[in-house]
Amino acid sequence: MKVLIVSTNREKTPFAVAPVGAAKIIGALRQSGHEVDFLDLCFARNIGRSLRQRIRRFCPDMIGLSIRNLDNCAYVHSHAYFQGDREIVRMIRSASRAPVIIGGSAVSVAPEELTAYLKADYAIAGEGENSLPAFLSAYTENSGFEGIPGLWWRENGQWQANPPSFSASLDDLPRQAYDCIDFDRYFSAGGFVAMQTRRGCPFECIYCSYSVLEGKRPRFFPAGACVDEMEKIVRDTGRSDFFFVDGVFNFPSGHATAVCEEIIRRRLKIRWLAYCNPSGLDRQMAALFKASGCAGIELGLDAATEKMLVHLKKGFTLSEIERTYQALSAEGLPFAVFLLFGGPGETVADWEQTQKNLQGFGKANAVFASLGLRIYTGTDLFDIACAEGALDPADSLLAPRFYLSRHLQTESVVHRLDMLARQDPTWSTPTDWNRATVKVIQWFLAKFRVIPCWKDIENYGARMRRQK
Q1: Where in the chain is the domain with CATH 3.20.20.70?
Q2: Residue 104: is its pLDDT beyond 60?
Q3: Dihedral, CA atoms, 394, 400, 404, 406, nearest 10 degrees?
Q4: Is pTM, for the whole model, over 0.90?
């Protein structure tokens, strides 16, 4: 079967993210014997023309849309993407009679609503590497769809669905078809080669949708296979800047250690960044990270008071945060901290204590303070919002809805956060991120491959704030 895969993501802030999910699906389809073409709309100047030209040239039997995000998950300056995806489906319908199937993380968190809104024919929630080839085989043979994990389809005018499965061994899955990605374009926009070493998250953060996307049980790509792929990408593309897109790269520590040790053993000269949390991130691990080419760590703390760490169910403590601060600083590894303010019971006093605690631990290169927690169905936060009357269980969550502690629901809350950030030159807020000055700085840093882009935020942050 001839299958056209279309990546709909067009966001380029803070940098353009290469479509690793679509590339993995393409690898699976190729392995299954399908003829595959790929259209990446990230840099398309005219979406309609790009779609029409590709459809006319390839004449697909099936068109798959890879949809990464429903929105930018920002309470301040919120922006939804799914309306644009609906327009993409409309353009496809005007150019082809091929059925449309959708997948990706956005579909996994809201499969029924998004499929109905986009007027797609089919959808796959969860992992698609096995499910999509199985669906195409059943579609071609006109056999039943029962048993295909994560599949949504219409039968007698009603939506039917199979639950997703997260039981597949990652060792058996095909790797990403990185040859389909225009890395020159992504690198010029500040991007990286995305690498995934594991799936599944055992943490229980109250707002997080990772268990819906990947399941709770950790599964791993073998360390040797990960580095095999990295070596091949460096050799074939000449690109050596990687981002480990695992939800938490350093947990469990044994797998992260194995990957780093394999990089060192092979003397692979690369630079890499990753998302981490303080669980197990001590000085020994920091030293190993640095020796294997780590250029910086992005710490997803979300909170830095014992009260809010408990309320958000983060699974680590203030003492672990302090240890991680000291470990990264001692090894000279740049790190940025990400905070998520507004959780249940939080007050402005908690914000002030957060800043005081972090300053007492040491100095991060950057602290990014967000406001408001995006609510997703199936999370503890959804139940909390419903119990507090902030959300009706029947409400649609396709358009972004946010949770904000009742103590923070004032007109001045954004201003209060901005004022707190002004007390520390390494801190920034959504107000800063949306300034034209910041966008110019981001463009400059991307153009000259300054990695990590937040390393010297204190210096250009001062210049940025003088523009106010």
Answers
A1: 192-371+404-465
A2: yes
A3: -40
A4: yes
